[in-house]
Amino acid sequence: MKSIGNNMTICPVCGAGGTFSFESRDMMYDKQEAHCYHVCRNCRSEYQTPMPNAARIASFYPDDYDQYVPLGELNRPSHAKTAVLKYHYGYVHLPAPPFPYRLISRAVAAVRYKDELPYIAAGRALDIGCGNGRFIRNMNALGWNCEGVEFNLTAVNVCRQAGLKVFHGDLHQAKYESASFDLVTARHLIEHVPEPDALVAEISRILKPGGQVAIETPNNCSWGRKMFGRRWFANEVPRHLVLFNTASLTRLLNHHGFRLRQHQTSASPKIILNSWDYVIGNRGVPSRKKKLRRILARPISFWAALFNKGDILFAVYEKT
Ligand SMILES: [Zn+2]
Q1: 29: CA distance to ligand 1 center in Å?
Q2: CA 82, CA 172: separation in Å to the nearest integer?
Q3: In angstroms, what CA-CA distances link 266 with 108, 219, 251, 262?
Q4: Number of structural domains in the chain
Q5: How far is the CA of 9 from the centre of ligand 1 (A)?
């Protein structure tokens, strides 16, 4: 991490100066080592300081961090989802759902399935950090020509056993041809990357003009983050290296020639209740598994999402 004096560091998102924001520890695995985060004075991104190198980042991930289970049966989308995809996202080839779903699809689309992506016939799509390949398989079932990139070899093998096309390594190592994809998706990935600028530059290179990238990442301007501070579950110290908000993510994407197409935030009782467990030091049954607490957390997540202050940010950008 570059230091520019007066305890200031350079923001990896926009290059402006940042100062101390918070210090926390790995609460998910109950480790005691402290990790420091700075906040950018310009774009309000937060970033780990000093930024760890690759070997140290690898040490943040215990062997049981992600369980890559083989894919089960493919679940067909519900009638409501099929109607929204067919009538609002251009999936005209899908079979028509029963009569009432066509009528109510507009109302359903206003409140649900807002993170679906407009269909491009046989469009080539890439899911970065594809895990066990569930998303790739779902996309292929909807008519996309989707493949993936994944760092974890166990996950890659799970994908390949399911017949999915996946590159083992990181995006830069894959060396895809320039302007060769219609769509790139990166869900819960960019916050784990020490150099988000280089990641977005590579996404821009491999996308066709007019191609889109969909990014999902924690929102550090959420009500949850305000309420729980350094104990907010989605900080996920120390594995989350950079925490974004809509403005800072958009600034980064604009810098690489993208324009914002749509964005929204979502919230769930899970993040609220896991954060609450960090606050009270709950080591017993997680609050998210207690019905009453889930019921109490639901209105908070509902209102947070309604005011665009949800914990998870989803944004789609188009390469101009
Ligand atoms: Zn910044």
Answers
A1: 29
A2: 35
A3: 16, 9, 21, 14
A4: 1
A5: 10
| pLDDT average, residue stretch 104-125 | 91
Distance CA 298, CA 292 (A): 10
Q: What is the mean pLDDT of the chain?
A: 93
Residue 161 Cα, ligand 1 centroid: separation in angstroms?
42
Q: Is residue 139, in this structure, part of any structural domain at all?
A: yes
Angle among Cα 5, 15, 21 to the nearest 5 degrees reads 60
The label of the residue with tokens 């000093």 reads: 50
Residue 318 lies in a domain: no
DSSP 8-state class, residue 200: H
In a domain, 291, yes or no: no
21 CA from centroid of ligand 1 (Å): 13
Report residue 69's pLDDT band, with 50, 70 and 90 as the boundaries: confident
Gap from CA of 315 to ligand 1 centroid (Å): 18
CA pair distance 206, 21, nearest whole angstrom:
35
Rounded Cα distance between 114 and 116, Å, is 6
| Separation of CA 195 and ligand 1 centre (Å) | 13
Structural domain for 82, as ranges: 54-193
Helix pair 79-88, 99-111: axis angle to 10 deg = 80
Q: Is 14 left (phi over 0), alpha (psi -120 to 50) or beta?
A: alpha
Q: How far apart are CA 56 and CA 21, in angstroms?
A: 22
Q: Any idea what the CATH number is for the domain that residue 71 is in?
A: 3.40.50
Contact indicator for 159, 139 with CB cutoff of 8 Å? no
Supply the pLDDT for residue 50.
96
pLDDT digits (tens, 9 = 90+) for 12-33: 999 999 999 999 999 999 999 9
| Token digits of residue 67 | 């369980």
What residue has token string 């309000």? 44
Please tell me the predicted confidence (pLDDT) of residue 5: 61
Within a domain: residue 40? no
